[in-house]
Write a structure and sequence with these properties.
Beta-galactosidase, Chain A, domain 5, about 900 residues, about 25% strand, 20 helices, alpha+beta
């Protein structure tokens, strides 16, 4: 991302484009921020708590974001962190978002290892008072970047195949060497019962290394490259970010790869990260740990001395099982010590999670010999350890069983150097098969494809079903430990790897800061409000259960939900064209994020986070002809031919970015700034366009609905972040020109200028789609009107909000014609509510609640809000049903309820 200096940013944000200025006064019914940056920082503080509660003594280091009201804090505001008892904690702070007046909107904060254990901490303005005991320092060598946390030193390679060249502890002991990215691939998947397939091995090869942060509490190193084979082929671009925190003995890795192979011949059969671990201790003082389910832990020694025919002594066995140094061999029973060479040494271990419901552990002495079954279970935590009494490596993968097929391997633990591999895709599973699921069925013309759409709701087109350009991001963690920890300690580390602790401001503070538009914390102060709150809780709980009951898991699937339900089969329509995976259709992402903002619930946050990680990577193209566009809902996430900005929109990712300062999500947000360029080569209306169309950069067919809504969310977010100034220019120019169109947001035929961001219409007519406002445009317009004083744009949007659900006569009076029978009327009740709040109009407020309760194309008040349980044999597994459920309706019901309560909740009866 282009980083502007603070002075340049403020100068840029305080400037105006014709007809635009920073909003100066609150509008009726809406809280508005102040405008001027205060000369002295206001004393602000907030109690931040651990998401989900409790106190976390074990962390990887923590980074989180906090919003602040407009005009309150300067952009370079300093902060302190302390326990409620007053103990000062070292903290690193940087701005990640600004209000249009230049004041601080979002601050990011990082704390390192050794954090005092507490349930809440006080974050306040002011110069930091705590001294960083172990600072993070970064230095660059000729072929490496070295990061020192005060506890460990990690050398990151700047060329070649070693992502991590070494990790040593402060006393010089080397714990890790040669951390590498590994890919295994084959060129076919055998269909018969007999076959012979050869695998090829590729290793991550570094192209560039960038130090993105250098301390004193947090350092971030970004490594980019491709996987390269012995034949010289380079493919599968990767980005790995390494996170280091002061005083920590751990490294967090965020691993992203993009698929750029040929789906019909490039079948990934193993994808992972491998570390080499020096083994210095005696075989009986070397240990292997693998986490099972629910805190279970396999605790083995490479050469076990417990359970033998002869007893070496209870003190010896107790020490070995605990991972502690065994007493000198001379003190053992000689019947054991004299026969140590006859006890097998177990050098290899594997834990494979090939489904969401089962893992299997096995071990062997060495290659060429048989595997021995160790145990099995349901859902492994995805954590392991290999090492000895003088040090070892702990390693873990987040969402291990949810993203099956995954695997942990330990090899050669009986040699001088062990290998530990975290497999994101298990080599024991079937190869990754990204081929399209049908042969086209003769749909070679647009007419045939539109016919297919009529029956399966799938918009198929040859060549548009490609996975080339999709991505996946996975979070990993490693610890360079000075000795084998207790199994209790390792179980705590496993929890941290599985669900990294996160600090969060409470809903009241998030709301008071005035961020993310129209929402309010949960309020059950009246019976009518309580009914709606209970239904919102019911829907959240229902979808959480559906994820598990229908096993919406897997490497490419986890984080998404299904679109439509088949009540006859008691099954979601996973195999019916456009009714299968939802791919953000009608904004479930927004529903989850607004649900979290107002509740503060950890389970809702984790669900929203998983969806953001999925939809921003898997459902969006990151290279190739469709770069920066997303794919409409379908049987496969990438299979539908509708490639649209409404799926890749920044509106769905910005919550996660601002709450966590996640750099990968920041990349995705920045990339969306330039999505408008894609419309030079992709015509979304190609199948239904009636006349000739040649893309003109000064007259692009980029619609005022979902297209502009997606672009506006990207431009606003980039402007907030202080990035490319073109974002602000295009945002304000587009708003001004939309406000000047004769029918405002109802204008059909408006064309877009790629250079300026302006719209113009040579022959404007009235046109509308029921989908225009339900992919984030309603939310973004609310924020824009809050931030920018542009009366014409505001009036155009209020007109849209008033008239969408208005009577035909009212529409005729203002637009010259009735809009006919429009769909999604319950979803649009929140637009009526917005107009009511802005105009302080009692009649519109009552109309909004009537529209919401009637529930047209949604969930009316009169329906049965009880779930039904379906048992086998009528379903594959026991499942709960809502007989009327639809993800479209659920997401829009949730958003309409949340926003209408916030806007005109005092009119609810």
């Amino acid at each position: 991302m282009s980083n502007l200096s603070r002075r340049a940013f403020i100068a840029g944000t305080l400037g105006t484009v014709t007809g635009a200025a920073v909003a100066a006064q609150p509008a009726a019914g809406k809280a508005r921020p102040a405008t001027a940056v205060e000369t002295a920082a206001a004393q602000e503080s907030v109690n931040v708590h651990w998401l989900g509660g409790g106190a976390h003594a074990e962390t990887l280091g923590v980074t989180w974001g906090v919003p602040w009201p407009a005009g309150k804090l300067p952009p370079d505001q300093a902060f302190t962190l302390r326990t409620e008892g007053g103990e000062a904690i070292p903290i690193q702070t940087w701005p990640i978002g600004y209000w249009p007046d230049g004041s601080l909107k979002w601050s990011a904060h990082a704390v390192g290892g050794g954090l005092p254990s507490a349930e809440t901490y006080v974050l306040a303005t002011g110069a930091p008072t705590a001294t960083v005991k172990n600072t993070v320092s970064v230095r660059s060598g000729k072929a490496f970047v070295e990061v020192d946390t005060g506890v460990i030193r990690c050398r990151v390679g700047t060329r070649g195949g070693s992502l991590i060249q070494s990790i040593t502890r402060a006393d010089g002991r080397e714990i890790v060497r040669r951390g590498q990215l590994i890919c295994l691939a084959q060129d076919s998947i055998p269909e018969g019962e007999e076959s012979s397939v050869r695998r090829k091995r590729f290793t991550g090869d570094i192209d560039s290394v960038t130090v993105e942060q250098s301390g004193p509490v947090r350092a971030v190193v970004r490594v980019d490259g491709k996987h390269r084979g012995k034949n010289g082929r380079a493919w599968l671009p990767f980005t790995v970010r390494l996170y280091f925190y002061a005083g920590a003995e751990s490294v967090r890795l965020v691993h992203t790869f993009v698929f750029d192979g040929k789906p019909e011949r490039d079948f990934i059969c193993g994808l992972g990260v491998r570390f080499h671990v020096p083994m210095r201790d005696e075989l009986y003082d070397r240990h292997v740990r693998l986490a099972g389910e629910g805190g279970g832990m396999l605790a083995d020694a490479v050469k076990g001395i417990s359970g033998l025919r002869r007893n070496p002594g209870d003190a010896v066995k107790t020490a070995q099982v605990a991972g502690q140094p065994t007493p000198p061999v001379a003190t053992w029973d000689t019947r054991v010590s004299s026969r140590l060479h006859l006890i097998p040494s177990w050098g290899d271990y594997s834990l494979s999670q090939l489904s969401a419901d089962g893992f299997h552990i096995r071990k062997r002495t060495k290659a060429g010999h048989g595997w021995i079954d160790v145990g099995a279970g349901g859902r492994a935590d995805g954590f392991g350890y290999v090492g000895g009494i003088t040090g070892g490596l702990a390693f873990g993968m987040r969402d291990f069983w949810e993203r099956h097929p995954s695997q942990l391997d330990i090899r050669h633990a009986d040699s001088d150097e062990a290998e530990a591999t975290i497999w994101l895709w298990s080599p024991e599973a079937r190869p990754m098969d990204l081929r399209f699921y049908h042969d086209g069925m003769g749909q070679d013309t647009y007419a045939e494809q539109l016919e297919g759409l009529e029956i399966t709701y799938e918009d198929y087109e040859p060549g548009w079903d490609t996975p080339v350009g999709i991505a996946r991001t996975t979070e990993l963690a490693i610890w360079a430990l000075d000795a084998t920890p207790s199994t209790e300690h390792l179980a705590e580390l496993a929890k941290v790897a599985r669900t990294p602790p996160l600090l969060m401001a409470p809903p009241a503070h998030l709301h008071a800061a005035g961020v993310f538009g129209d929402w309010s914390p949960v309020d059950r102060s009246t019976p009518a409000r309580t009914v709606i709150e209970d239904r919102l809780d019911l829907l959240l709980g229902f979808y959480q259960k559906q994820i598990d009951q229908h096993r919406w898991y897997g490497f490419w699937n986890y984080g998404d939900v299904m679109h439509g339900y088949d009540f006859f089969r008691h099954q979601w329509r996973y195999d019916v064209g456009g009714y299968a995976w939802d791919n953000s259709e009608l904004s479930p992402d927004l529903w989850l994020w607004y649900s979290f903002l107002r509740t503060g619930r950890a389970d809702v946050y984790r669900m929203a986070e998983a969806m953001t990680r999925h939809t921003g990577e898997v459902d969006v193209y990151h290279l190739g002809r469709f770069k920066d566009l997303g794919t409409r809902h379908g049987v496969q996430h990438w299979g539908d031919s509708a490639k649209q900005a409404r799926i890749s929109t920044a509106a769905y990712r910005r919550f996660f970015y601002f709450l966590t300062a996640d750099e990968r999500t920041g990349d995705l947000l920045h990339n969306q700034v330039y999505t408008d360029r894609t419309f030079l080569t992709i015509d979304p209306s190609r199948k239904v366009r009636t006349g000739p169309y040649e893309p003109d950069p000064h007259a692009l067919s980029l619609g005022l609905g979902n297209d502009w809504g997606a672009m506006a969310s990207a431009w606003l977010t980039e402007w907030e972040r202080g990035g490319d100034p073109i974002a602000k220019t295009k945002l304000l120019n587009s708003m001004r020109s939309i406000g000047a169109l004769p029918y405002g947001h109802f204008t059909s035929g408006a064309l877009y200028d790629l250079d300026t961001g302006e719209y113009h219409a040579a022959a404007p007519t009235v046109g509308i789609s029921h989908l225009w406002a339900v992919f984030g445009k309603a939310e973004i317009c609310s924020e824009l009107i809050q931030l920018v004083d542009m009366p014409a744009f505001k009036q155009a949007w209020l007109q849209y909000c008033r008239l969408y659900n208005a009577t035909g006569a009212e529409q005729q009076a203002e637009l010259g014609r009735s809009l006919g029978s429009l769909d999604l009327r319950q979803a649009h009740s929140r637009l009526t509510a917005y107009a009511a709040a802005q105009l302080d109009d009692e009649r519109l407020a009552q109309r909004a609640w009537a529209e919401f309760k009637t529930g047209a194309a949604g969930y009316p008040d009169t329906m049965d809000w009880n779930t039904w349980r379906i048992e086998p044999p009528h379903a594959l597994n026991p499942v709960e049903e809502l007989t009327w459920v639809s993800t479209n309706a659920t997401a829009q019901y949730g958003l309409a309820a949340i926003q209408t309560l916030a806007l005109v909740g005092d009119h609810l009866s």
